Amino acid sequence: MHYNFNKELPLFQLNIPTQLYAGKNESERIKDIISQFGKRVLVISMQDLSEMAERIRNYITTAEINTELILLENIEPTCSYIDKLKQQLKGNKIDAVIGIGGGTAIDTAKALAIALTHSDPIWLYTNLSNRPPLPLVNQTLPVIAIPTTSGTGTEVTPYAVLTNTETSQKGTIQQAEIYPKVAILDPELTKTQPPKLTAATGIDAFVHALESFINVSKFSPVAECTAREAMIIIYKVLPEVYKNLNNLEVRLEMSWASTLAGIAISHRGTTAIHAIAEPLGAITHIPHADAVAICTPPVLKHTWSKAIKKFALLYDIFEPFNRYEKTEAYKAEKIVELIITMFEKVNMVKKIKDYVETNDLTDKLLGDVIKYKFRPLAQHPVKFSKKELTLIISDIIE
Ligand SMILES: [Fe+2]
Questions:
Q1: Of the candidates 74, 76, 170, which has an alpha carbon nearest to the alpha carbon of residue 128?
Q2: With bands split at pLDDT 50, 70 and 90, how would you rate the model's confidence at 1?
Q3: Segment 131-136 mean pLDDT
Q4: How confident is the model at residue 7 (pLDDT cuts 50, 70, 90)?
Q5: Confidence of residue 37 (pLDDT cuts 50, 70, 90)
Q6: What separation in Å is there between the alpha carbon of 149 and the centre of ligand 1?
Q7: What's the 217 CA to ligand 1 centre distance in angstroms?
Q8: How many C-beta atoms lie closer than 10 Å to residue 118's C-beta?
Q9: Which tens digit of pLDDT belongs to each residue from 359-392?
Q10: How far is CA 227 from CA 40, 233, 271, 395, in A?
Q11: What distance in Å separates the CA atoms of residue 277 and residue 184, rounded to the nearest whole number?
């Protein structure tokens, strides 16, 4: 590695402020650590995880610590719902928020950590390419993350993704204050995931790592090494987990890979795939991980030939023993094929028409990507013309 000291300082940063525990039954540890965060704890989880959420809630409910449990429906967090919860919880003097679940529960917990301490509608705290967020002016509530999926990496990121159903947009809160203070990876919790969710969330984690790796916005050896390790693990382990859902060892490997990918995107974010997948999800309500799976093959197919060095490097990661035998052009093209084969192994090669009607979608999706996702788009190793972007979106929609 060669450091370029002519760049703006700092040359790079390392931000991992989350205390992380990983291992079988580690979720029980919550009872030993919760008291440092206060006496009134809000627990956010999902209706279909109610038994698990109650069990974890029981670990922490004592004579000294009060808990309140909110079980969400299985939809991604919306701003209007966060604002409604804020009104409902006003006056409850909450000290900390625990999110137990996938991205929906944990991102809701993160959003509430801001909403319950700030007066403006939560949407105004999201960061869109065409409009800066409101600054945080008060101390936010501490967040504890207990993921039950291996996908979002939100347990170690400063991000919470919210949908605005009025404007059909997705925006991301991006604030260091919402890094979880503690995260617990317990494979006993992730083994409840059905095969489809296991595959979809695993692909989302893989694409976080992939996009962080190819992102050209800044120098980050932290993103490079965490993304590389996350991709190696997921490429090997996701098809294994998909066939063997109750294997705790591979479940924990997937959780660790998803966390590594979360560290990667915390240091150097996503690129064109998420820049298109997020508006696609906001418009069509296709679940986030599925939208990512739909967008990945067309973006990679349209991109590899214009960023051969970057994609050849990816090939070297997955096929280290063949690295000296092949040309860069061969490797760059081949890696796209290998990634799609991995998607096939877990039944995640998807089309929009598997989910919704595609009529009149092209113009709206293209318009939204250009309007409010131009920043992540510009982080891709290829600079897209409007014509090129239209072609990619047409391929995604076909
Ligand atoms: Fe994602």
A1: 170
A2: low
A3: 96
A4: low
A5: very high
A6: 12
A7: 18
A8: 18
A9: 889 999 999 999 999 999 999 999 999 999 999 9
A10: 37, 10, 14, 27
A11: 28
Residue 44, beta-bridge partner list:
70, 99
Distance CA 346, CA 74 (A): 22
CA-CA distance, 355 to 238, in Å (whole number)?
A: 23
pLDDT tens per residue, range 89-107: 988 999 999 999 999 999 9
Decide: 39 and 95 in contact? Cβ < 8 Å. Answer: yes
Spacing, Cα 324 to ligand 1 middle (Å): 33
Same fold, 19-190 and 195-397: no
Tens digits of residue pLDDT in 137-191? 999 999 999 999 999 999 999 999 999 999 999 999 999 999 999 999 999 999 9
Query: In whole angstroms, what is the distance from residue 261 CA to residue 267 CA?
Result: 10
CA of 121 to the centre of ligand 1 (A): 24
Q: pTM (2 decimals)?
A: 0.96
Q: Kindly report the CATH number that applies to the domain delimited by 19-190.
A: 3.40.50.1970
What spacing in Å lies between the alpha carbon of 326 and ligand 1's midpoint?
A: 32
Fold classified for 195-397 = Dehydroquinate synthase-like, alpha domain (1.20.1090)
The CA 266 to ligand 1 mean position distance, Å, reads 12
Residue 84 Cα to ligand 1 middle (Å): 25
CA of 368 to the centre of ligand 1 (A): 18
How far does residue 150's CA lie from ligand 1's centre (Å)?
11
Confidence (pLDDT) at 8: 63
What is the residue extent of each domain of the chain? 19-190, 195-397
Q: How far is the CA of 36 from the centre of ligand 1 (A)?
A: 31
Higher pLDDT, 191 or 63: 191
Bond before 10 cis per omega within 30 degrees: yes
Distance 31 CA to ligand 1 centre (A): 30
Q: How far is the CA of 258 from the centre of ligand 1 (A)?
A: 10
Q: Could you tell me the distance, in angstroms and rounded to a whole number, from the CA of residue 35 to the centre of ligand 1?
A: 32
Q: How many helices (H) and strands (E) does the chain have?
A: 15, 9
Interval between CA 119 and ligand 1 midpoint (Å) = 28
The predicted pLDDT at position 3 comes to 72
- pLDDT of 225 strictly over 70: yes
- Compute, in angstroms, the gap from residue 140 CA to the centroid of ligand 1: 24
Average pLDDT value over all residues in the chain: 95
Report how far residue 69's alpha carbon sits from residue 42's, in angstroms, rounded to the nearest whole number.
6
